[in-house]
Design brief:
Elements (H helix, E strand, L loop, with lengths): L17 H13 L9 E7 L2 E6 L5 E3 L14 H23 L4 E12 L17 E12 L3 H14 L1 H7 L10
Antiparallel strand pairs: 1-2, 2-3, 4-5
Length: 179
Amino acid sequence: MTQTATASVITPLRPVSKDGLQALAAKAQANPNVIGTLKVKTVCEGQFRNLTYVRNLPEHVIDEPPTLLGEDTAPNPSEALLACLGSCLSVGIHANAIMRGITLSKLELHLEGDINITGVWGIGDLSEKRLGFSAVRVKVDIESDATKEELAELLAHANHWSPVANTFRNPVDMEVSLA
């Protein structure tokens, strides 16, 4: 009787340097109180289409859908916020997987958020209500060589240390003023 063995081949995601991650971690551990300042510039192009400039990168477009009187040329601000959360969690999951010796072959995050938009930028229903997201759900579709328990721990760790997730969870001092 002949038996056939089937092996599944995991094609890892494009690699990140583990040495680079270790050097970054060592630098942070050597000076844990460093606060960086990120800067962007947003310019309203017209209607609700905005161009945001980050470093020397091409502009990042934000728009509104037709239901909110936009041109529907790009994500709206709230969708972009969910995208930022998904990307931040993804980076954390990937970096920590590498540091733990876990090979990822698929990493997709599916996000959805509940938001009451009846206030419509302060011109709609101005009755007392929660502004912003009231709930956000993230489902992570991941394929790897790790156990389900290892993956659950990896996700919990990345979520705990995500700067964007913590911006959602924690109050932030914010000032808006004329230039």
